[in-house]
Design brief:
It is built from six helices and 14 strands. With 269 residues, it is an alpha/beta fold. It has a single domain, classed as 3-Layer(aba) Sandwich (Rossmann fold). It is globular and about 65 Å long. The chain starts with a strand and ends with a strand.
Length: 269
């Protein structure tokens, strides 16, 4: 029996960022994602709402199930997503350094609708387990790519506390709602925030919340390098790059290379 003792290094993560960007419709999720290097978008509508990036010349793929003349699905969304995955692992790796799934909740809806189609319109209890597993498989396969990965999500309200606080959650159904935040390095909320200067003057700016609050308990920054609210530039220029630089800033104490520091060999008892 043998095993390696290894030292972590930045090369374990390719110095890429795996990020979930959550926000209300119109918050700027798609536009923020366009500041990542060499992105390709994946949409789940025939006519995606991409006015915000129309003048930024963004390559994108529309993922729609293939259907026969009777309206039955012959190739489901999950199969097309795996084909895109293989493309990004192969020829696409030359062109793209970021993949943006826009949005993750629309992906889940597409998976669910495809399953209902194959079930002739029915949806049973066991199908929730299938949906959770399939969604996990597809999203994590993309997260494992050696490029930047951004998945956008809509927000939804869950409940109102006794003090009137409105709690927010990612707009997913079933187990994925609670599981998804654990898959990413950074899970943040894109929104507008009020600032007060030392003279008491209030201004509003757009920011990316990266530190959990009572309302957003699932927000996180695994790197520990980002401010609680990262201020977004006025015209969404270079924002993702600035976040990446904060996460992977120069630190002489951290090796860039993963290394095996010892090999332990033991005789079987």
């Amino acid at each position: 029996m043998s095993f390696n003792v290894e030292m972590t290094g930045r090369s374990d993560y390719y110095e890429k960022v795996k990020m979930a960007v959550v926000g209300q419709a119109g918050a700027g999720k798609t536009l923020f994602s366009s500041t990542a290097p060499d992105p390709v978008y994946i949409f789940f509508r025939e006519q995606p709402r991409i006015m915000s990036i129309a003048n930024r010349a963004m390559p994108h793929i529309k993922v729609l199930p293939e259907m026969d003349d009777a309206g039955r699905i012959t190739k489901p969304v999950e199969d097309i997503m795996l084909e895109i995955l293989e493309y990004l692992r192969g020829d696409g790796a030359e062109f793209y350094d970021t993949v943006v799934i826009d949005t993750g909740d629309e992906l889940q809806k597409a998976l669910k609708e495809g399953k209902k189609n194959r079930n002739r319109g029915k949806w049973g209890i066991s199908d929730w387990g299938w949906l959770a597993d399939e969604y996990h498989t597809v999203v994590n396969a993309f997260i494992d790519l050696p490029i930047n990965v951004i998945v956008t999500y809509h927000l939804k309200n869950t409940q109102e506390g006794e003090d009137g606080t409105i709690f927010k959650e990612i707009a997913l159904q079933g187990a994925a709602k609670d599981d998804t935040p654990g898959w990413f390095d950074v899970v943040g909320v894109l929104d507008t925030y009020e600032n007060v200067d030392d003279k008491g003057i209030k201004t509003t700016s757009r920011g990316f919340l990266t530190s959990p609050t009572p309302r957003y308990g699932w927000v996180k920054d695994h790197s520990g390098q980002l401010p609680p609210v990262f201020e977004i530039s006025e015209r969404f220029v270079g924002d993702f790059g600035k976040i990446r630089d904060l996460i992977y800033g120069t630190d002489a104490k951290v090796s860039h290379e993963h290394e095996v520091i010892s090999v332990v060999q033991q005789s079987a008892p």
